[in-house]
Amino acid sequence: MALDIRDFREADRAALIALWEACALTRRWDDPNADMDRSIASRDATILVGTLDNDVIASAVVGHDGHRGWIYYLAVSPDRKACGHGREMMAEAELWLTARGTPKVQLMVRGENETATAFYNALGYERQDVTVLGKWLMPSPEAD
Ligand SMILES: CC(C)(COP(=O)(O)OP(=O)(O)OC[C@H]1O[C@@H](n2cnc3c(N)ncnc32)[C@H](O)[C@@H]1OP(=O)(O)O)[C@@H](O)C(=O)NCCC(=O)NCCS
């Protein structure tokens, strides 16, 4: 059964956070509510929500930073995996970016997430010859 995919509604908030936690996408130093608020407030981002019978079972946060498209928080409920819903969410996210003239989309996958890497490879995503650098702009919460 295909997903219904629509933009975020405020009533989705708790279900989305539960989904992201169930999919191990949250980190204690990231505030998912703040992430949602920023995406909702931005004209260059949206939160796509996938439902089945009105149950929230998938998400993708998609946005454009002025140069590239980015996708974050791609998630499919663990009990609904391998049904094609991840592919559906990615197709919708790519459509959202294409409609805004975005020539290229990229995303980051944690090194240990081999399942997600295999999934993205199946969708035509390829490893890029770039090094991702980061720097904390506050005391590193990872050091706690
Ligand atoms: C990654 C994730 C979104 C995939 O969603 P899904 O609904 O299970 O994937 P789909 O059923 O749409 O699979 C699409 C394709 O990817 C392939 N695929 C999915 N998982 C795979 C794996 N572990 N190994 C190889 N191929 C895989 C499928 O075979 C399928 O290919 P096909 O359509 O040609 O048959 C889902 O597993 C998830 O939510 N994981 C936890 C959160 C996460 O890691 N998100 C990514 C953060 S970067």
Automatic annotation (TrEMBL):
The keyword Membrane does not apply. Residues 3-144 form the N-acetyltransferase domain. InterPro entries: Acyl_CoA_acyltransferase, Bact_Acetyltransf, GNAT_dom. GO terms for molecular function: acyltransferase activity, transferring groups other than amino-acyl groups. The keyword Transferase applies. Keywords: Acyltransferase, Transferase. It comes from the Bacteria. PANTHER family: AMINOALKYLPHOSPHONATE N-ACETYLTRANSFERASE-RELATED-RELATED. This is N-acetyltransferase domain-containing protein. It comes from Hyphomonas chukchiensis. The lineage of its organism: Bacteria, Pseudomonadati, Pseudomonadota, Alphaproteobacteria, Hyphomonadales.
